[in-house]
Amino acid sequence: MRTRRFRTPLSVTAAVAALALLVPGTSAAAPAPAEAEPAATAQAALIWSDEFNGASGSAPSAANWNHETGDHGWGNNELQNYTNSRANSALDGNGNLVITARREADGSYTSARMTTRNKVQPHFGRVEARIKIPRGQGIWPAFWMLGGDFPGTPWPNSGEIDIMENIGREPHLVHGTVHGPGYSGGEGISGSYMHPQGWSFADDFHTFAVDWRPGSITWSVDGDVYHSITPADTGGDPWVFDQPFFMILNVAVGGNWPGYPDGSTRFPQQMLVDYVRVYSLDGGGGGTGTITASNGICLDVAGAANADGTPIQLANCNGNQAQQWTVGSDGTVRAYDRCLDVAGGGTAAGTRVQLWTCNGTGAQQWTHTGGQGLRNPQSGRCLQPVGRVQTDGTRTEIADCDGSAVQRWNLP
């Protein structure tokens, strides 16, 4: 998995920067202000973040991150053993996560690979991280995503979105790639971005992001867009990116693509991550108003309360705030700046539905199907009133989707 070659040339932005560096008598533009974010961020709603604030030496949040461990090469003939040791992943006390690749006394290598699988799985939006990458021949840092149904759906059919990759021998370049059925490994669809001044990305922090919408993904570095793809770019092969994905941060040592450390490589090498954030790209929604059942009754926040865990029910429509919902292009349905949520991330029929702080997980993803059902993709089940009774005060749950009237909802 994740073997890399590139069939897409450098972006126009990167090529212009390269010409400015290479053509005699020209020079690169003065450095732009660091990390000028895409303009859309100003209108976007932050729906989840990890700011990595905590005591020096403490572990990253177990509520957000898993550690994948092992030294089996990870499909790329990599050298490192991924561990869950604080020697390889810890907070630094200054608001950063530090992933450290080390050469151990016996000559082996250790590092860390962290994922949000089954904890935070965004479904569209801007996914970004502010990172200071490591450097050196054979060092391979990455910020990327895999389809939320992996490994049940094997790679590459699960889909992979690489937000940022760098290989140490190319300190001035980063790459953005997708892999899917028919365009994986060496045939991944890629774009590359050169530092505007030709400097090493390891010299400072940079913001690496994708703007991810149904049917499109666009990459940027410090707000500078350099690559975009749609289903038209897959050559007729399936587009597998309109589903929840989980995020991954790792630093590999060696591998088929970056090559291997040599006498110039210095250890330890550290990747510093200031934050990882997920935004809704439209400020929270494609529409705001009431959500009504097929008999005209309204979806309602019980007691007009805005606390986590407040039940969602049916109620006679009254126009109050408890019945005002915003349907987001990121897959969320919101009231009181919180999200419609399947309790406990449950997937079983009969699991109750509640209001909860938005966190980007699959429990808060909803699609409006052709039969007008509100379906939660993580569970594969649809929203309905408990007991299939459409009366005032009836609480809601997820149930097997059957297209019946009690599962039909009219959205704003």
Determine the CATH topology of the largest domain. Jelly Rolls
Kindly report how far apart the N and C termini lie: 42 Å
Number of separate domains: 2
CATH architecture descriptor name of the largest domain: Sandwich
Oligomer: single chain
Strand content: 35-45%
Helix content: under 10%
Reported for the largest beta sheet, the result is: 10 strands, mixed
- The stretches of 5 or more residues where confidence is low (pLDDT under 50) are 3-42
Structure overview:
This protein has 412 residues and is mainly beta. The chain has 2 domains: 12-280, Jelly Rolls (Sandwich); 287-410, Trefoil (Acidic Fibroblast Growth Factor, subunit A). Helix content is 3%, strand content 36%. The chain contains 1 helix and 30 strands. It has one helix at residues 12-22; strands spanning 45-50, 66-68, 81-82, 89-91, 97-103, 109-111, 113-115, 125-132, 139-147, 160-165, 173-179, 189-194, 206-213, 216-221, 224-229, 245-253, 269-280, 287-289, 292-293, 298-301, 312-315, 325-327, 333-335, 338-342, 353-356, 367-368, 374-376, 381-385, 396-400, 409-410. The strands form 6 sheets. Strands 1, 3, 4, 5, 6, 8, 13, 14, 15 and 17 form a 10-stranded mixed sheet that branches. The protein has a 7-stranded antiparallel sheet with strand order 2-7-16-9-10-11-12. It is elongated, with a radius of gyration of 23 Å. The model is unreliable at 3-42 (pLDDT under 50).
